[in-house]
Amino acid sequence: MSTKDAAFERTVQQEVSRLEAHHPSPDDIPGCLSLFDDFLSCNVFRSQVKSLYRYGERPNCSPKFEEFKYCMSIKGMHPEERRMAWIQRRAEWWATRRLTCSSEDVWDIRTEPLVNFPKPIPDGPVEHSTPE
């Protein structure tokens, strides 16, 4: 397994853990109707104009329609199986997004908290220095 594949698998597992905690039951994943609403809202006039203004082109609504189609394809599964299938798909999407460069990349992902952050507040009165 190459380093790139190992990094992808590690990132997918991190995302699966995060999504499982965020969506603990089958009722917490989005329903097909809400995904269809997302697709339709992508095609409304306001969304089209905003995308033209910001990016100079119409929005690509195909991924939203693909999410709706995927939801419909797993509709017949047992609720827990459907939840895990949805979590796995979203984890792979987030892992791909995290590992590819984007104009939104500003911060590095921190794997451990900073040492002594935030600094503890002292118990006594705070002394202010005055400029001389």
Helices and strands in order, then pairings?
Blueprint: H1 3-22, H2 32-42, H3 45-55, H4 62-73, H5 79-99
Helix pairs in contact: 1-5, 2-4
Task: Please outline what is shown here.
With 132 residues, the chain is an all-alpha fold.
Protein described:
- By secondary structure, the chain is an all-alpha fold.
- It has one domain.
- Helix content is 57%, strand content 0%.
- The chain contains five helices and no strands.
- It has helices spanning 3-22, 32-42, 45-55, 62-73, 79-99.
- Helix 2 (32-42) runs antiparallel to helix 4.
- The radius of gyration is 22 Å and the shape is extended.
- The relative contact order is 0.13.
- The model has no long low-confidence stretch (mean pLDDT 88).
Attribute tags:
132 residues; mainly alpha; 0% strand; extended
The amount of beta strand, in percent, is: under 5%
Q: Main beta sheet: strand number and arrangement?
A: none
Q: Report the strand count.
A: 0
- State the share of residues found in helices, binned by percent: 55-70%
